Amino acid sequence: MASSLYNAENIAAAGIPDAKGMRIGIVVSEWNSNITSDLLEGAIKTLKQYGVCETDIITRHVPGSFELIYGSAQLAKSHLVDAVIAIGCVIRGDTPHFDYISSGVTQGIASINQQSDVPVVFGVLTTNNLQQAEERSGGIIGNKGDEFAITAIKMIDFFRSLKKI
Ligand code: DLZ
Questions:
Q1: Residue ranges covered by each domain of the chain
Q2: Taking CA 37 as the corner, what is the angle to CA 31 and CA 39, rounded to the nearest 5 degrees?
Q3: What's the gap in Å between 108 CA and the centre of ligand 1?
Q4: Which residue's CA is the closest to the ligand 1 atom numbered 15?
Q5: Whole-angstrom Cα distance, residue 34 to residue 158?
């Protein structure tokens, strides 16, 4: 799926390290679960494609995208995983809730990344409507879960490369 909106091929172009032995935590929001379950499926498929063993993937669900902050922070601290993927979908509604949740989860996950050795991938779709979310979770724009998976693998490799210096 080649599209300026679907970036997995671009980030894959520079090469993807062998992910065998990498341990990945995935936190998934139950809000808009029809979307987040498809993103999860895409992420797991791509992790396995690059060598991650099913037994090295820990998946946990949280009620909404706001709870991804707590869930990701706990998983990052657990020593059970080398990277965390936070998967959510916030869809604009009639109230300002969208803005508070979107900016809260964005800043929360950015903050974890500043404090933790375990990278947390921002796998949260923020869309104006359900159609845009569907297009990005296995629809005409592809499945952003692929991109989240490749990003997690690359960030683990980045961290490990510093240990070799
Ligand atoms: C409350 C709420 C609303 C209105 N919309 C969404 C959404 O589009 N996507 C999402 O993941 N979560 C939503 N939530 C729930 C909040 O993330 C959170 O679970 C609650 O505010 C409780 O902390």
A1: 17-163
A2: 105
A3: 14
A4: 64
A5: 32
How confident is the prediction along the chain (165 residues), in pLDDT tens digits per residue? 445 556 777 777 778 999 999 999 999 999 999 999 999 999 999 999 999 999 999 999 999 999 999 999 999 999 999 999 999 999 999 999 999 999 999 999 999 999 999 999 999 999 999 999 999 999 999 999 999 999 999 999 999 999 877
The single residue of 97, 110, 115, 140 carrying the catalytic annotation is: 97
Residue 63 CA, closest ligand 1 atom number:
19
Residues with CB under 6 A from ligand 1: 29, 31-32, 63-67, 88-91, 93, 97, 101
Q: Strand locations in 7-118, DSSP E?
A: 24-29, 57-62, 83-91
79 is catalytic: no
17-163 topology per CATH: Rossmann fold (3.40.50)
Cβ neighbour number for residue 103 with a 10 Å cutoff: 12
Pick from 157, 29, 11: which is nearest to 85 by CA? 29
User: Ligand 1, closest atom to CA 30?
Assistant: 11
